[in-house]
């Protein structure tokens, strides 16, 4: 990623544009201006022009993370990843299943797109994992998937900030650890169960943070983004 840091923003902070329309996402990007360099587009905008919007963000010089969490048979994941690899995006998520990750690596080919594996969704706590049939606790499930991510040759994982330190201890420095579930002190946790502050997530070994509602739903989103970037630059 080549954006030079300006004084206000921190390119390691991806703002999640989980908004109902592209027009609202565009207005948010306009409002945030030079306070934010990096954006995540997820499933909410995908069916209504999110990919084309991401390409416009690239022409504005922003980093673009497509959080599409692919999870399908290998041939489909490979072809879908190839489609994204042709779009000049920076990051793409797939679920951290061995066959899915290996297929994404094949689909990416030589493109600069980085592939991230989603280990365990940060909205799932122990009780929720048990209800869907996992007997492993969240941490051991995450660590099993990190090993499989390393084997598959993807570039990093998405995980809760609470697992970042354990992951960092077993991966090379170049391996990306991207953490949602980040909440500045005093912010509403929403549906996130395993959370940390921006500085503690970075201290634990996260390379990038994903932050949505604490910025996009703040009374003054730009001020919220600036405060988070300032906290991050101190780490
Ligand atoms: O609004 P909030 O800061 O909770 O947004 C977090 C973003 O990160 C959402 O877009 C969510 O889909 C995404 N995400 C997550 N947990 C993961 C992977 C992605 O919360 N494990």
Order of helices and strands: EHEHEHEHEHHEHEHEHH
In CATH, the architecture is Alpha-Beta Barrel
CATH names the topology as TIM Barrel
Rg over alpha carbons:
17 Å
Contiguous helical run count: 10
Key features of this structure:
single chain, 235 residues, alpha/beta, TIM Barrel, eight-stranded parallel beta barrel, 16% strand, globular, binds cytidine-5'-monophosphate
Summarize, please.
This protein has ten helices and eight strands. It has helices at 22-32, 50-59, 74-85, 98-108, 126-131, 138-152, 164-168, 198-203, 213-216, 221-233; strands at residues 13-16, 38-41, 63-70, 91-95, 114-118, 156-158, 176-179, 208-211.
Describe the protein in words:
- This protein has 10 helices and 8 strands.
- With 235 residues, it is of the alpha/beta class.
- The chain has a single domain (13-233), classed as Aldolase class I (TIM Barrel).
- It has an 8-stranded parallel beta barrel with strand order 1-2-3-4-5-6-7-8, surrounded by 5 helices.
- Strand 6 (156-158), helix 7 (164-168) and strand 7 (176-179) form a beta-alpha-beta unit.
- Helix 3 runs parallel beside helix 4 and helix 4 (98-108) packs parallel to helix 6.
- It is globular.
- The model has no long low-confidence stretch (mean pLDDT 94).
- The chain binds cytidine-5'-monophosphate.
- Cytidine-5'-monophosphate (C5P) is lined by residues 16, 18, 42, 67, 118, 121-122, 158, 180-181, 190, 192, 210-214.
